Amino acid sequence: MNESFDTELLVPNIAQTSLTLPGRRIRAIWRRVAWHKILLFGFSLFLFILAITLMKEGARPLAPLVQTSFAVTNPANSMGFGWLFAYIIMSGSPVAAAALTFFDAGVLDQFGAFTMITGSRLGASFIVLFIGFIYVLRGRDKSASLSMGLLSLAVTGSTYLVGLVVGLSLLHFGIFDHWQPGDGMLLNSVLDRIFDPVVGLIMGWLPEWLVFLVGLGIIMLSFSLFDKCLPQMALKQSHLGHVSRLVYKPWVMFLLGAAVTLVSMSVSVSLSILVPLSNRGFVRRENVIPYIMGANITTFIDTLLAALLLGKPLAFTVVFVEMFSIALVSVLLLSFGYRRYERGMLAFVGWVTADNRHLATFMLVILLLPVLLMLV
Fold it and tell me: 310 near 52, Cβ under 8 Å?
């Protein structure tokens, strides 16, 4: 009698526990969600779209300034202009977006927009090196401080310059001119209803030439806020310690660099992940090369989004050709002669860091190159 009574008491308790367990799990998951980061991401996306719209409206009045005062009249000029522009604002993505808005406004042609985007990425890769150079001036180890920046610049420069020839050829023959995204009229209509009143208010208060600069400032703010939305993962949380052997496989690192940059939409974030890995001995310099190659392809995702927001089909083609060209060059390098390419990149970094005169010469050349392109 007592046994049956005890069993009857236990049954409802077990049922109650099983019914409440999913609810507890949902509540636990709900509490772990970083809602403030989700809201911050939404706000950064709002600012990004607003910035592209403002830059689009403000680009047209800048046409005389860009074409005469800055003498941007050919693809070489526009490449140097994008390169210097990235130096000045210490970022490449806003400059790439600016190139598309200039193209939309008729300030640049298709080739000029393509080379300006290429220049913006070269300028952005130099920024990592420049920060390392500052560390050297402060007495830090020269090789450790500069290796990452030099490799980033060397890999980016070698692949992008070859990709430049490939991309300009593809644009010239119009191979991808008909590869366009689907009709975005509904999306553009919704966005116009949301952002047109805000843009109209800003343009009513500011002179036309200042609207572009305001948009540029807002897009830089949006990228900064987006970086803060990303989770900060420690090495032990990422479980990379258990798969450290994979970093010795170039294709794995290539895909990893592409995937991390695709998710973060930021080369600076994806490359910063390499710092703790390098400090703990998981990644050597040669392992970083294919990672940078992969990151240099998917870093155009934000620029591709900007092209879609502009609603100009040929702007999408310019960015797509840029991605395709860099991907083609990178895949060919990984498939044929990668070890020779790797030795070349490491030898170059070793030569630059071996002597202060080599370093000073290289820094001077890399600073003067965009200026010379502006004078062509």
Answer: yes
The domain locations on the chain are 73-182+232-375
Q: Which helix (H) or strand (E) holds 187?
A: helix 185-205
Q: Taking a C-beta distance cutoff of 8 angstroms, is the pair 56, 99 a contact?
A: no
Q: What is the reported pTM?
A: 0.81
Asked whether 294 and 257 are in contact (CB, 8 A), the reply is yes
Q: How many CA atoms lie within 13 A of 260 on its CB side?
A: 25
Q: How many residues does the chain have?
A: 376
Taking the C-alpha atoms of residue 302 and residue 120, their distance in angstroms, rounded to an integer, is: 13
- Rounded Cα distance between 274 and 287, Å, is 10
If you write DSSP's letter for every residue of 50-86 in order, what string do you get? HHHHHHHHHHGGGHHIIIIIS---SHHHHHHHHHHHH
Please report, as a single letter, which amino acid is at residue 142: K
Range list of H helices, the chain: 2-32, 35-59, 63-64, 75-89, 93-105, 110-137, 142-173, 185-205, 208-229, 235-238, 250-264, 267-272, 274-279, 285-298, 301-310, 313-335, 338-354, 356-375
pLDDT beneath 70, residues of the chain: 1-35, 127-128, 131-145, 182-191, 227, 230-248, 264-283
In 144-233 the beta strands, taken as DSSP E runs, fall at none
Rounded to 5 degrees, φ, ψ at 330 are -65, -45
- Position 244 scores a pLDDT of 54
Q: Residue 44 in contact with residue 226, Cβ under 8 Å? A: yes
The first and second tokens of residue 256, run together, are: 């990893």
Q: Write down the pLDDT at residue 320.
A: 95
pLDDT for position 55: 87
